[in-house]
Amino acid sequence: MGDFNAMLLRHEKVGGRPVPDSILYDFQSCLLRSGMRGLERAGHIWTWHNKATQNRIACQLDRALGNSEWFRWFPNSVAEGLAAGTSDHSPIRVGLCERPTFRARPFRYNNSWYLSPGYEEVVLREMQHFRDGTAQFRMVHKLKQIKRAIRGWVKQLSRNSLADKEEELRDTQVALQSDIMNGVLAAKERSLIEEVSTMRMQEEISAAQRAKCTWLKDGDRCTKFFYDVIRTRQHRNSIPRLLNAEGRLVGDPVAIQEEAVRFYTYLYQQTDYASMFPALVTKRLVSRHGNSLLLAPVRMEEVEEIVMKANPNKAPGPDGFSSGFFKRHWGVLKAPVLAAVQEFFVEGRLLKEMNHTFLTLVPKKEGATSLADFRPIACCNFLYKIITNLMCRRMEGIMQGLVSRNQAAFIKGRSIAEHSLLAHEMVREFSKPGGMKACVKLDLRKAYDTVNRDFLCHLMLAMGFDGRWVARVRECICSPTFSVLIQGTPYGYFSRNRGLRQGDPLSPYLFTLVMEYFTCMIDIAVHCGRIVPLFRLVSPAVSHLIYADDLLVLLQPTMRGMRALSDIMEEFGRLSGLQLNREKSRVYFSSRCTLQEERAFALGVDRGELPVKYLGVPLTVNYAREQDCHSLVDFAQKRVEGWQAAGLSFGGRIELVRSVIAGIAMFWLQSIQIPSATIRKVEAICSNFIWRGGIHAISWDQLCRPREEGGVGLRPFQEVRKAACMKMAWKFIKGGSLWADWMTSRYLRRTNFWACRIDNNFSVTFKAILRCRPVLQTAIRRRMKDGSTTDLWRDPWLGSRSLLEILGEQMDREAGRGLTCSRILRDGVWRPEDYPYTAPLAAEIQLIIIDTSLTEDTWSWAGPGTGGGTGKFCFRSCYDLVRIHHAQDEEVAFIWGKGVARKM
């Protein structure tokens, strides 16, 4: 604890010059090697400032650090910054904040219990009991009986710890060394080895379940890491103090629990929302066939697939049974579970106990003390989740045709990266002359928690959903009761009459339907001329983009349009319950827009300045600069810093880089063109983390090779960026998305993708996509139906080449303008001799297979490693096309070929 005279992240300084990367790197390496981590901060954040009246500079130079042992003993310790007084540094006081005592925690099924003797007999004995009543009642009663029996069995288990057994094994082996031929000692040693191995496996399974770590799957045991993750989560989610309704900070456990119950009881009560609704206008209706799919009888195969694909480490609901229990005993549970699910789909009623829910409070920011800064996540019973997952699977088939392409969240086949790219393309036009432009980033207050459920059901009926299906949805969302989890203990018992549960599998689809009505309201305003989109001549005319509750409206900022948008948000909030948070919403104008303050006032939100973060990446007028991408570098650093990541082995660190950091970097690389300097910084953080801040035994480039070529299977981000561009180029030529159609209309109005010349007016992203064409051509094939949508001269339909490439520039360009392959393909038969330019290629053309089962001509992926031409895009295949290949190392291939765990 003290003045380290260094900063860990860029945001720890305001004012003055930016912090040099070398200073950040040295301090980060120091903490990484020592396994230290900062205590939670409170009080004065800026511990040093220059005390100037102008050009002020403030930094976080003073801090308190702790290692894993410190956090094990003092998990709730806080470093509080005090008033600086006459000094330029603020003193720090460390409070140990002992964990308050709460009631005993509820029953939680442990996935490792099956390894203990006597477990199977206890469970199977209770499963034989039969109780009269409905199928749901019998299933719930059976789980209660099993829970009661397991609790009694756990109390009778041996309390010998793993450390005691390991010590007994060591003592036995020492004694055996003195009498090596002693058969009794040898038998005891074998028995102890089996017991220790079983107990180690139990400990790891139990720790992995509590840690809920999904990216670390196999290889060396990471029990220490799991326990570090558990302590981190407990520390982050603990609520040692809370602001009550009077604004006073309270730390008494009783006061905390009473305030939490009071807050959420009040939040979930309907207030002044509409109860009578007009005739709602929707753009699309559920077909009769769609309703028949929704109402089809429940089959065992559907239920079993849901159970088997569930993550066994997910948090259970109030009954305490995770999906791991149902998987373990599915052979005897499947019949009663199926009966309970079928009963709901026939009668449309849920047993009240099945729909009880625990609310676990997850802080949105570090050091949260107000309940408004916590996100309530619903922990539902797994039996209920089986029902709602089944409902989601059935709705999935109709959502794509029901929800407008402006919404990209939760709809199969739609991409957040494409939505982000489209937003960047449209905002890029702000820097160009020609009219006034604006984009409005709208924030909804407590979106999920405030949905008017009567409006939702009324809207579903207007969309053509069968009344029986709507009744089932209403039963799922209107029947739950709640208790709030404080430090793992439930308090309170209350119901709600508004909102959807975050954590209920059904909620995302239902929320998407509510937001679809917002799209309808905007489209009506556009059709009536009240709102004018940015690009009226581009089809489709995109007026807004939605991703879940992230709203971005792009329009010409006329006074009429601003007032119309404000009126739409007022009316939408009155009907749906989703109120606009005007304090967090912002409007961004192009530089040529006049009267910006007046236009923002007409809308009712404040004016902001670009760049701004949208869907996790910076939304910029021009290309992204290095300073715009600092959040990616900071994310990578936060993931590897401190004692939690220090608990990983070398293989575990490789897996964290591959699964977590590379995954986020991949999203950024698809969404924007990241500067090379930012990529190098992220790679340096990853490499430094892998080698624990010490000497790098081999270079990053060597690590980023396939195992058979002497690496560990990581991927260099520069090459991943090329593959990401290839992926977006593939999505572009496949078409069908809002982004692809808008880009085609914007840039390729008079030309073809394959013949388009790169223009300086094109965006950085579109230029990168066009530069991928030579490599892309080698990995795709054209599948023909009738040739009507295939350009005869410019599309590469002859293997990987176009007719223009084969014949060269000497051909008559005008003769080929506008022709498609239907010129030489009629009635499913090739007739190349009918056109003079294709006659010499008749033999090659006749080998191209016609597929009349297709709806139209389409592209098929044929890159390396795609399983003999399945036609489906594969990123691994795409990456293999653009990466640098090295000679294979036979010795390395021999080592990896012996079944060694990939993370060792």
TrEMBL record:
Q: List, alphabetically, the Gene3D superfamilies matched.
A: Endonuclease/exonuclease/phosphatase
**Domain annotation Reverse transcriptase: ranges:** 343-619
Highest taxon above the source species: Eukaryota
The protein's matches in InterPro entries, at most eight in alphabetical order, are given as: DNA/RNA_pol_sf (IPR043502), Endo/exonu/phosph_ase_sf (IPR036691), RT_dom (IPR000477)
UniProt name for this protein: Reverse transcriptase domain-containing protein
Origin species, per record, is Iris pallida (Sweet iris)
Higher taxonomy: Eukaryota, Viridiplantae, Streptophyta, Embryophyta, Tracheophyta
